[in-house]
From TrEMBL:
It is found in: Membrane. Its main location: membrane. SUPFAM superfamilies: MFS general substrate transporter. It is a multi-pass membrane protein. The chain crosses the membrane at residues 12-32, 67-87, 99-121, 127-147, 159-180. It comes from Angiostrongylus costaricensis. This is MFS domain-containing protein. InterPro entries: GLUT (IPR045263), MFS_dom (IPR020846), MFS_sugar_transport-like (IPR005828), MFS_trans_sf (IPR036259), Sugar_transporter_CS (IPR005829). PANTHER family: MAJOR FACILITATOR SUPERFAMILY (MFS) PROFILE DOMAIN-CONTAINING PROTEIN, SOLUTE CARRIER FAMILY 2. GO terms for cellular component: membrane. Residues 19-221 form the Major facilitator superfamily (MFS) profile domain. GO terms for molecular function: hexose transmembrane transporter activity.
Amino acid sequence: MMRDGVGSSQLTIRLVLTAILSVLGGGFHFGFQVSIINPMSQLLQSFLLKNFERRYSVVLTESELKLLWSTIAGSLFLGAAFGAYIMSKIIEVHGPKHGILCSALVLMFSTPLAGFSHLMASPELFMISRLFSGIGVGMGTTAQGVLLAEISPVAFRGVISSFGGFATNIGFIFASALGLPDAFGKKTSWPYAFYIESVPCLVSYGAAKYERFISIFFPHF
């Protein structure tokens, strides 16, 4: 990711694409994960309530459900803090590019897991998904910040660094749209919103993993 057009003193197509692909594995998912549970809040709480009762014969009170939901929602940020710590160690040894790969792998596991939780009628899987999504987000945003600073020329460092915040806003808006009842905010279709989130992970991972192969066909990048 850091050859040819990347690392020059000009704003090249390769540099811009590298920045975009980097934030697809970081900032985008932060905005997405923060936003996606808001329009689907009632659906997801109903899913948790129903399956806790079915699996454990436990009927949660309204206050217990609110506490459980707040804990699950907040686990994203707990995971993000842990992910950022892990990524600092990975970057020290392997560099930010390998960090992007690692964060993409974690998110490729965690994001569809939320959808599978509905298929398996398992609230536990949804909790695990939320925590690991936080870890992936923390890893991705940390690696993204280091990589963007590393690859951008001094004259364009501000512009390139702003890609992270821009991607977060895009992820936030995109998730809000997917969560609407007219999209996937329905009782049976909400898992597809999480499946869709895994697509940018695949793109980011593939671009980082096979960058040299891609350069054969697109040498001007």
